[in-house]
Amino acid sequence: MKKNIFLAFSAVIALTFCVESNVMAQSSYKIDVSKAKYEVKRGHLDLGGKGQNEESIEVNNFYLERNGKPFVPVIGEFHYCRYPSQYWDQEIKKMKSGGVTVIATYVFWNMHEPKEGEFNWADDSNLHHFAQLCKDNKIDLIVRIGPFAHGEIRNGGLPDWLYGRPFEVRSNDSEFMKYTEKLYNEIGRQLQGLYYKDGGPVIGIQIENEYQHSAAPWAITYSGAEREYTTARRDRKITQVGVGINDSGNEFKDYGQAYMNGLKTMAKKAGMDVPLYTATGWGFATIINNGSIPVMAGYAFPFWEDKIKPSPFYLFKDIRKTPDYAPVSYITEDYPSIAAELGTGMSVLYSRRPRVPGESFLPMMVRTIGSGSNGLGYYMYHGGTTPSNGFYMYSEGFGLSNKSYDYQSPIREFGNTGKGFYELRLMNNFLNFFGEKLAPLYPVIPQTNAQITADNNATLRYSVRSDGKSGFLFMHNYQDHVQTKDLENLKVAIASTAGNIQFPHSGTFTLKSGSSAVFPFNMKFGSVEFKQATVQPLLNFSNNGKNYFVFFSVDGIKPEVVLNGKIKTTVKNASSLSSEGNSVISGENGKSFEFTAGNNIFLIIPFEKALHTILVGTPEQQYAVISKALVLENGNKLDMISTGTASWDLEMYPKTALIKTDEAKISPLKNSEKIVASWNITTQKVTPQVKISQFDDRHFILDAKDLDLSKLNDVFVKFDYRGDRAICMLNGEIATDNLYTSEAWQVGLKRYQTALKQNEMYFYFMPMLKDAPYLEYLDKNVLPDFSKTKEFLEIKTPEIIPEYKVSIEFNKIQF
Description:
Elements: H1 2-25, E1 28-32, E2 49-50, E3 56-59, E4 64-66, E5 69-71, E6 74-78, H2 88-97, E7 102-106, H3 109-112, H4 127-136, E8 140-144, H5 174-190, E9 202-206, H6 253-269, E10 276-280, E11 293-298, E12 339-343, H7 361-370, E13 376-382, E14 384-385, E15 388-389, E16 392-393, E17 404-405, H8 419-438, E18 442-444, E19 461-466, E20 471-476, E21 487-496, E22 499-503, E23 509-511, E24 516-525, E25 528-533, E26 536-543, E27 546-552, E28 560-563, E29 570-572, E30 575-579, E31 582-586, E32 593-597, E33 600-605, H9 607-610, E34 613-618, E35 621-626, E36 630-634, E37 637-643, E38 647-653, E39 656-660, E40 665-669, E41 677-682, E42 691-694, E43 699-703, E44 714-719, E45 721-722, E46 725-730, E47 733-739, E48 745-748, H10 753-756, E49 761-766, E50 768-769, E51 791-792, E52 794-795, E53 799-814
Parallel strand pairs: 1-21, 6-7, 6-13, 7-8, 8-9, 9-10, 10-11, 11-12, 12-13, 27-33
Antiparallel strand pairs: 2-3, 3-4, 4-5, 14-17, 15-16, 18-19, 19-20, 20-24, 21-22, 21-23, 24-25, 25-28, 26-27, 28-31, 29-32, 30-31, 32-33, 34-35, 35-38, 36-37, 37-53, 38-41, 39-53, 40-41, 42-43, 43-49, 44-48, 44-53, 45-52, 46-47, 46-49, 50-51
Helix pairs in contact: 5-6, 7-8
C-alpha cells in the first residue's frame, strides 16, 4: 500500500513538473524567418487594367499593385438600397473615416425589377448616384452584380416572377441567361462613365455569389413543405445554407465554369470593363479560372450553424495555401489571398441569436493579415434597413428580421458607430499607410501553431511576415466563445538574415486578454531604420516638407523603439540611451512621446488615443486629428459628430495655430505633454422635442411632430430592455424591428422626420419565454430567473439621445 501511495505521489509530482515545464516553455518563443522568400508570378491572370493619366491596377499571384506599387485594399460592405439616399454622402464619409478604401455593394435584382420588364433605378435604388458619390469622396467601388446575391434578401435577390418559369435559375439555360443579360445591360448603363478606365470609382465587379456552394430559399412556399432553394437542380446536393465546407467536391464543375465564364463575357459586353473581377472562393465555390480573384470569408459567429463552438478563424496559418473553408476549387498558388466577407457582425434568426462583440473584430484581422492575406473585406461594415412595400417584405424571412439589417456592424443600422469601428480603424490605417511594405512579405508560421486548438488559451498566437530580413510580428490574445487570460512573461525571438531580434529588447511583456499587436523589425521608416519596436505603426504623412510617423503603444507592453546604430535624436517625454551600439528610446505606457531623427518625426500615442485618430488635410500638408467625436473630412472643413454630449476635446498634430467655427465655442486647453495642440469644443445643448409615453407593459408611443433637427445631426431613441423581440411601427407599416441579442436597441429618427410630423411612432415589445430556443445565445448576465415565471419582459425608461454635428476650419500653419 505504501509503495502504491509513493508511486502515485511521484506520478503527481512528475505530472506537475511537466505541466510547469510546459507553461514555462510557453513563455519563450522562437521563430526563424531567414529563409522566407516568395517568387511573384505575373501575367497568368486575365485581370488588371489602365485608368486615366497612366494609372493602373494589376494583379499578381500574391498581391495587388496600383501604379506599380503594392497596395492592400480595405473593403467595406454597404448596401445602398438599405439606407436612405439623402444620407449616402455622410455615410460614405464615415466609412472613409474608418479607413475603408473600397466600398462593396450588392445589386439586388428583385428590388430593381420587381415586375418583369419594369426597372427602377430611382431614389434609394439609384446605383448611378451612389457610384457618383463614391467618386466625389475618392473611394473605390466593387459592384456585386449577381444575378444571385443572397445578402439575406428575399430569394437571394432573384425576382419572384422568375419562380416556376420553365428553366433552371443560375444555369446556362438560354432563357435564364436572356433575363440575366437584360439585368447586366441595365447595370452597365447605370455605371456608364464611372468605371476606373473613365476616371471613375468602379474598380471591380463580382460575378454571381457563392455559385455551386450556397443558395437562398424561395419565398414562395407552403407551411410544412420542404424548402426550395434558388439553385439549379443539378447543384442541389452540393448546395448548402450559409458559408461552410464542401469536402465532397463538385462533379458539375465544368458546367459551372462555363456558366461563370459566360457571365463575365456578358458583363464585359454590357460595358462593365474593370481591372478586377471577383468570385466567391470559399467552400469549393466555382470561380472564373485565371479570370477572377477568388475572395474569401470567415464568420466566427454564424447564425446558420446549429452548434455554438469556438471557430478556427483566430488561429494563424498560411491562409493562402490553406484558405478558410477549404478545400477550394482553384490552384491557391495562382492567386492572392483577399477577403470579401470577414464577419464584422452577423444577422440573427429568431431561434439563433449570436451576439458579435466589437472587440472580436480587430484580433480576427490581425490573424488574417498575419496569416498572409493581402486584402480585407468586411461584411457588413455598414448596416441598414431592408426596404418593404407595405407588408410585402424584401427580407429573406424564415426567422430573420423582417426589416432590420443592423448586422451588429461597425456602423450600425442608423449610422451610429459601434466599438468595432474604432478598433478596426487601427488595422485599416496600418494597411493604408504601410501596405506597400507589408504586401510582398511572406507569412512564416511558428511550429507551435500546429498544436494550438481553438479552445487553447495558454499558448501565444503569433506569426511573422518577412522577406527574410525585415518584417512584422503579429500576435493576439482572443478567441470567440472562449475566455482568454493575460499571457505573462513573454519573449519572442526572431532569427533573420540580419541577425537575431528579441521582443522585447530586454525583459518580458504581457499580452493582455483580448489585445493584439503588430510590431516591426529591421524596417525603415523614412530614412530611419528600426531594429525593432514594441509600438504599432498607425499613420505616415507629410507636413511642411517633413515626414511624420504615428505609432501607438499597447497596454501591458512597454513602448520602446530600438534604432539601428547610434542615431542622433531629439526626444520629448521619453528616455534615450545607447545599448549594444543601438539607440533605444523608451516611453511610458498610457503617455505620448515624440522623437526626431533628421527630417523624420515620430509620435507614439497610447492605444486609447489611437482609436480616435484620423489623418486629414492635403497630401503636402496633413494632420493627425485625435477626438472622441467622429471626424469626417468634408472639403476644406472637418465635420465632427458627437452622440449624447455637446462638449468634446480635439487634438491636432503637428500643432496648428488656429481652428474656428461659428457653430460652437472653442477653448484652448493646456496639454502637459506639449506635443499636440488641444481645444475643447462646446456647442449649444439641445433637448429634442420628442415625447415618449408608456401605454402599458408592452407598448410605448413616441410623439415627435415638433422635432427640429436644424441644430442636430440626428436623435436616437434607446430602449434598454430584456425580452424576446420588438417592433417599431410608423404610419401603419413596420419601420424596423429588433430580435433581442443582450444589447440595447437604438432607433434613429432623422430618416422618419417627415412622416413623424403627421404620425405617432409605436413600439411594441414581446416577453422572453422560459423555453425560448435562443436563450443559450444570450449573455448570462441578462438571463432572468425563470424558476417562478414562464415569461419575462423588462424595459427600462427609454432614453432620448441627441447627436450633434459641428463643422470646423483649421489654419494650416504650424506654431
